[in-house]
Amino acid sequence: MRTTLDLNDALVRKAKKHAAERGTTLTALIEEALRVRLEAPAQPKRRRKLPVFKGDGVRSGVELHDTSALMELLDGDAAP
After folding, report:
1. 28 is a domain residue
2. Fewer Cβ within 10 Å of end Cβ, the chain: N or C?
3. In a domain, 69, yes or no
């Protein structure tokens, strides 16, 4: 099948050089690269490690549903 691709010039130059060094064509090199990429197993997404709270828990008197009170407490304006 014939198709047209818009590729980065520097990448094409590098691919042509690589193909010539291997004694193959640019088409064969692209086909091989596509085959390898499409047949490779999907890479699992890396899981992010979340920070773990290692404190003593919620301070007594803290109302988690009261955003204003929480902000005051964080600012140091209110006693728990």
Report:
1. yes
2. N
3. no
Maximum Cα interatomic distance, the chain, rounded to a whole number of Å: 77
| DSSP 8-state class, residue 32 | H
Locate 32 and state its tokens: 């091989």
Closest by Cα among 5, 26, 3 to 16: 26
The Cα–Cα gap between 27 and 55 comes to 60
State how far the Cα of 77 lies from the Cα of 17, in Å rounded to an integer: 68
In a domain, 30, yes or no: yes
Tokens of 8: 């980065």
pTM score over 0.85: no
Amino acid identity, position 66: D
Question: What range does the domain containing 18 cover?
Answer: 9-39
Is residue 27, in this structure, part of any structural domain at all?
yes
